[in-house]
Amino acid sequence: MFSTSSKSEPKIAGDIEERLDEDFGESPAVILRSVPELLRIGKANPSRHHVTFLATPPTKAVLASFTLPPSGKDELVIDGREVYVHTPDGYAETKYTGSFLERRLGVVSTTRNWNTVTKLCELARR
Fold first, then answer.
1. Helix intervals (H) in the chain
2. For 109, which DSSP code?
3. Strands 82-86 and 50-54
4. Phi/psi-derived region of residue 6, left when phi > 0, alpha when psi is between -120 and 50, beta in every other case
5. pLDDT at residue 46, as a whole number
6. Secondary structure of 20-42 in the HEC alphabet?
7. Looking at residues 35-64, what average pLDDT do you find?
């Protein structure tokens, strides 16, 4: 969590990535959400076990051709820059992982379980 006066998400992410690279010699992709966005995500259906945060929304063309392989009881809902994944048998057993979504949607992502999302929302409310 951090505050900034900048309104440019690409600039903020780029600055953070650059600093991480300077400090650690490499940098993962940085995916940002504002406090209002995070709180909106936190109000989503808590039966979802994981949220995959996308760096950018998938294109309409990608969404139109997007198909899911069968994955047991798992469910997946794409909502803008978030993908909610319900995995009743556990995330380790699902085909709907972050890397699967990155390949199929063509965007950078990071996945967090619902407990982490809840804790991030608690921090955001402070």
1. 9-24, 35-42, 60-65, 98-105, 114-125
2. E
3. antiparallel
4. beta
5. 62
6. HHHHHCCCCCCCCCCHHHHHHHH
7. 89
Q: What is the pTM of this model?
A: 0.88
Q: What values do phi and psi take at 109, rounded to 5? A: -145, 170
Are the C-beta atoms of residues 52 and 82 closer than 8 Å to each other? yes
Percent of the residues in the chain that have a pLDDT greater than 90, as a whole number: 63
Tokens at 45, concatenated? 């259906």
Question: Where do we find the tokens 């965007």?
Answer: 107
Neighbour-count burial of 17, counting CB atoms closer than 10 A to its CB (0-12 exposed, 13-18 middle, 19+ buried): middle
pLDDT one-digit tens code per residue, 78-90: 999 999 999 888 8
